[in-house]
Amino acid sequence: MVFGKRYDYDDVTFVELTKSINKLFAELGSSQLMTVFPFLRFVPGVNSSNRIIVECLNEVQAYLRHEITKHRENLDTENPRDFIDLLLTELQTQEKTDCFTEENIVFIIQDLFTAGVETTASTLRWGLLYMVLSPEEQQKVQAELDSILGTDHDVPTLAHRSQLPYTEATIMEIQRIRAIGPLGGPHAPNEDTTFRGYDIPSGTQVLPNLWSAHMDPEFWPDPEKFDPRRFLDSGGNVVRRQESFMPFSTGRRACIGEQLAKMELFLLFSSLVKHFTFKLPEGAAAPSTVGCLGLTYVPPTVNMCIIKR
Ligand code: HEM
């Protein structure tokens, strides 16, 4: 979609790019401490993650610049091949305004990969972990999928989404019980402000605790229990816009990829559960539901059997 080609898993460029992005995420996780205690950036050793982050970003950006240059060489604005062509076409129409530059294209694509890949992948991995832990919920999703799509090998499409409330509610429960961005993104007020009796001077870094909203027993009784029915009304319809549910954060700087992520999660999760059953190997102990908090909250590695239905 972005580069106009598909990369094989052993493609050298793809492997290098993936390595850089994975390293970037791992280091961004350890550099969180410096986000909370900024003085640590002056401590040698502790601040080495900053250097690695810059190196990884430089590698990713060098590749993006190379691809953009190649696209520019044979751009046909009437027949865009991919996302880069679309952005280059837009750039040409806006060239005189100065507010959209080639550098913006680099950062838009970088955001797409850094903010858009690992987030959805980790949510799906949490989903499969909870399917393994809750076989009865998995069966209910499969029964609903079979009832709408039949028992043959049809793949769910977005058109089926409104007919699959239990599947949707299950995805929402996955996002509630293990928010992969538990502390949202760091923000700062532009002016001195007061929130619930706390004075917050302008420029103070604020991290929203989305985790506490998702685990508040006042809104979610027995919050560690995996229960998709929390998101269904008595008629079995999905209840949206719950006050204490905000996996994509809230406000003007909420996740810009929310709609795309919801579509991806629906298509991938429903296709996987439609075609496979996920279960623990015979006699294996239940896996832990404690993840690892880096930039995102990632699930532990779990051995599971994937059985074709
Ligand atoms: C399950 C998937 C995802 C989850 C749970 C998620 C969650 C979040 C959260 C909590 C934030 C922080 C919002 C804040 O600062 O208050 C965020 C920001 C952001 N997300 Fe996502 N995200 C997901 C997928 C995506 C995808 C697919 C994209 C793009 C293709 C994306 C792009 C972004 C960007 C660019 C920001 C920064 C927005 C800004 O600072 O204004 N995300 N996301």
Automatic annotation (TrEMBL):
<dbReference type="GO" id="GO:0005737">
    <property type="term" value="C:cytoplasm"/>
</dbReference>
<keyword id="KW-0408">Iron</keyword>
<dbReference type="GO" id="GO:0016712">
    <property type="term" value="F:oxidoreductase activity, acting on paired donors, with incorporation or reduction of molecular oxygen, reduced flavin or flavoprotein as one donor, and incorporation of one atom of oxygen"/>
</dbReference>
<dbReference type="InterPro" id="IPR017972">
    <property type="entry name" value="Cyt_P450_CS"/>
</dbReference>
<comment type="similarity">
    <text>Belongs to the cytochrome P450 family.</text>
</comment>
<feature type="binding site" description="axial binding residue">
    <location>
        <position position="255"/>
    </location>
    <ligand>
        <name>heme</name>
    </ligand>
</feature>
<keyword id="KW-0349">Heme</keyword>
<dbReference type="InterPro" id="IPR002401">
    <property type="entry name" value="Cyt_P450_E_grp-I"/>
</dbReference>
<keyword id="KW-0479">Metal-binding</keyword>
<dbReference type="InterPro" id="IPR036396">
    <property type="entry name" value="Cyt_P450_sf"/>
</dbReference>
<dbReference type="GO" id="GO:0008395">
    <property type="term" value="F:steroid hydroxylase activity"/>
</dbReference>
<dbReference type="Pfam" id="PF00067">
    <property type="entry name" value="p450"/>
</dbReference>
<dbReference type="InterPro" id="IPR001128">
    <property type="entry name" value="Cyt_P450"/>
</dbReference>
<dbReference type="GO" id="GO:0020037">
    <property type="term" value="F:heme binding"/>
</dbReference>
<keyword id="KW-0560">Oxidoreductase</keyword>
<dbReference type="GO" id="GO:0008202">
    <property type="term" value="P:steroid metabolic process"/>
</dbReference>
<keyword id="KW-0503">Monooxygenase</keyword>
<dbReference type="GO" id="GO:0006805">
    <property type="term" value="P:xenobiotic metabolic process"/>
</dbReference>
<dbReference type="GO" id="GO:0006082">
    <property type="term" value="P:organic acid metabolic process"/>
</dbReference>
<dbReference type="InterPro" id="IPR050182">
    <property type="entry name" value="Cytochrome_P450_fam2"/>
</dbReference>
<protein>
    <submittedName>
        <fullName>Cytochrome P450 2U1-like</fullName>
    </submittedName>
</protein>
<dbReference type="GO" id="GO:0005506">
    <property type="term" value="F:iron ion binding"/>
</dbReference>
